[in-house]
Design brief:
alpha+beta; 2 domains; 7-stranded mixed β-sheet; elongated
Length: about 325
């Protein structure tokens, strides 16, 4: 090969390398300039599953009683049964006052939900609840469903009506039909103008009577104080002497207005006994259940073991 041909071959080879280099550079630049394909992944946090709770786990005296804890270290108390539910909480400022004998007129401390709608009420004097409704749990009975969310707020519904109790401070909010709260009706005997001075007899209440002459423990279902001027009462559950039972009730009556707490005038007395003044509805229920004869209960004393004393008003 002569010198000229060698020079031409080198020049052509160099040009080819230059072209290849340029193509490679253009390709790299093109790749760098091209937008990269990216995938966006959205992570959704699933709401916790709501667990259904058997109402029987909260059964007490034929109803279902449970609490729901709040962030303010208190608890909402609910009583459920017979197609209604009553729960304690903080009523709004524009809620009407309620008048429920024997308590003075005052702002409501609870809400009732039943087939007719919503009614402001009070809920006091209920013994300790058998259990607690935890966050993300649900209980249903008699057409009513109550459910807690993950934070612990409680929501109860029946048909188009319902209420929510906030987990932070117990504030109650309503939706649906709110009924006007009426004053509690007087006992039938008072409406008829009948005298209330006659104490009940064994026939009236279906209980054995006892003269309270000693403090020997008496059996459940015994009337105490029928034959004298002592406090009339029924030892409804457990065993206690009539004199001791009367002393408990009288001690409570003497102190309840000055020392009693809440709407029920809740007050510990002695030997683990705690006495309350039941709300009008509960008073009537206990009157029919324990006292009989259309009466009502004025004082209820109970122990954690389940013993119970029920006393009608003094002038019964």
């Amino acid at each position: 090969m002569n010198r000229n041909n060698l020079t031409l071959t080198v020049v052509l080879l160099g040009s080819a390398l230059l072209v290849l280099s340029a193509c490679s550079s253009d390709s790299d630049d093109g790749d760098a300039a091209s937008p990269r394909s990216t995938e966006t992944t959205t992570t959704e946090t699933a709401a916790p599953d709501v667990t259904d709770v058997d109402p029987a786990s909260f059964e007490m005296d034929g109803r279902y009683v449970f609490t729901v804890s709040r962030d303010d270290d208190t608890a909402t108390l609910c009583v459920m049964g017979d197609g209604s539910i009553t729960c304690s909480g903080k009523a709004p400022e524009d809620a009407p006052d309620v008048t429920i004998t024997p308590f003075p007129t005052q702002p409501p401390g609870a809400i009732v939900l039943d087939e007719d709608g919503l009614t402001w009420y009070m809920l006091e004097g209920v013994p300790p609840a058998p259990g607690k409704l935890e966050p993300s749990q649900r209980i249903s009975d008699g057409g009513i469903t109550c459910e807690t969310d993950a934070e612990g707020s409680l929501d109860c519904t029946r048909g188009d009506n319902g209420f929510t109790i906030d987990h932070e401070d117990g504030a109650i909010s309503l939706r649906g039909t709110v009924r006007v709260t009426a004053e509690a009706e007087a006992p039938e005997a008072e409406e008829a103008g009948e005298s209330q001075s006659t104490k009940p007899t064994a026939v009236d209440g279906g209980h054995e009577d006892y003269s309270a002459a000693s403090d020997e423990p008496v059996a459940a279902g015994t009337w105490c104080g029928v034959h004298d001027d002592s406090t009339s009462l029924v030892v409804d559950r457990g065993e206690i002497g009539c004199l001791s039972a009367q002393s408990l009730v009288e001690d409570y009556r003497d102190r309840r207005q000055s020392e009693g707490g809440g709407n029920s005038l809740f007050l510990p007395v002695k030997d683990d006994w705690v006495c309350t003044s039941p709300t009008a509805g509960r008073s009537q229920e206990l009157g029919e259940e324990v006292i009989g004869g259309g009466g009502r209960a004025d004082v209820v004393c109970e122990t954690p073991e389940g013993a119970r004393i029920v006393a009608p008003p003094r002038n019964y």
